[in-house]
Amino acid sequence: MGAYILRRLLLIIPTLLGIMVINFALVQFVPGGPVEQIIANMQGEGDAFSSISGGAGDTTTTAGEFENEGYLGARGLPPEFIKELEAQFGLDKPPLERFLNMMWNYMRFDFGESYFRKVSVTDLVLEKLPVSITLGLWSTLLAYLISIPLGIRKAVHDGSRFDTWTSGVIIAAYAIPSFLFAVLLLVLFAGGSHWQIFPLRGLTSDNFEELTLLGKVGDYLWHIVLPVTAMLIGSFATLTLLTKNSFLDEIKKHYVMTARAKGLSESRVMYGHVFRNAMLIVIAGFPAVFIGVFFGGSLLIETIFTLDGLGRLGYEAAVGRDYPVMFGTLFIFGLISLVVGILSDLMYVLVDPRIDFDRREG
């Protein structure tokens, strides 16, 4: 097992390097860099994209005009000023040199500062992390606490009336987009048109620091009910059906019939034999579920409930062409995802010690 983990750890380096190379290369072809963003704002055009696509009364800039002017946002501004901006952002260097310098800094976990906020990328991530941890951790935890017992019950009572109507509810929940469900929750329970039960925005109240410890816990839980419920709606449906199908596959195997023939109780058969084997695929999906919710599934929920987390940070960095934040968070998230993938394999062995990855690879 040690040799397998070592190989997986060594594979992190080329995998992460490939992720960074692809994304860095793609960014070189995307119009509207940080220099154009600043120039567009200085000229009152809002952002660089309006000048690229052409505003009201403007015609689209031709390729010849682009070559003559260098930057589209440079119209009316001294070339010396443009060069100063390029040097400030390090864009006066060749792309290969910029990439190598960036990766050398990232290997030392030096992610630089945001172009526009003058705050280090690490501090920005740490500032936004509590929101994403709240949404990701509670959503994943509740999804497993609901899905596993429900999926087992559906497998044991396969084809029954309970299985039928719960499947209908699960399919309906899966079909509803999380952001649409979030809007529905706001309308119904946050003072939209019906009941003002839960707060509309934020993770805490304005007087949070003045509350007692018990009051702070209650205030925190009160604020996360709606956003966590909105994120939970789709993930628990998938996990429930996955758990049910996994248990059904195991129940039909010969060792289950043998255990029953020996006179073991149904609960002993189910939880002493079937559970360990059936839960392998469910546990293997835990990292993907958590990473998906933690990094990728919270942007719309954060926007709807006015939560300032990693989802909004990444989106705003991409729109604003804040390259240090874009690539710094990409490196951090990619590294965490790869490490969590290794942890999922260790969870396999923890649940079923019979699994030997070294022997399988041999």
Automatic annotation (TrEMBL):
Residues 129-348 form the ABC transmembrane type-1 domain. Belongs to the binding-protein-dependent transport system permease family. This is Oligopeptide/dipeptide uptake family ABC transporter, permease protein. The chain crosses the membrane at residues 9-30, 129-152, 164-190, 220-243, 278-305, 325-351. GO terms for biological process: microcin transport; transmembrane transport. One of its GO terms (cellular component) is plasma membrane. It is a multi-pass membrane protein. It is found in: Cell inner membrane; Cell membrane. PROSITE patterns: ABC_TM1 (PS50928). The keyword Transit peptide does not apply. It comes from Roseovarius nubinhibens (strain ATCC BAA-591 / DSM 15170 / ISM). Its main location: membrane. Keywords: Cell inner membrane, Cell membrane, Membrane, Transmembrane, Transmembrane helix, Transport. Gene3D superfamilies: MetI-like. Pfam families: BPD_transp_1.
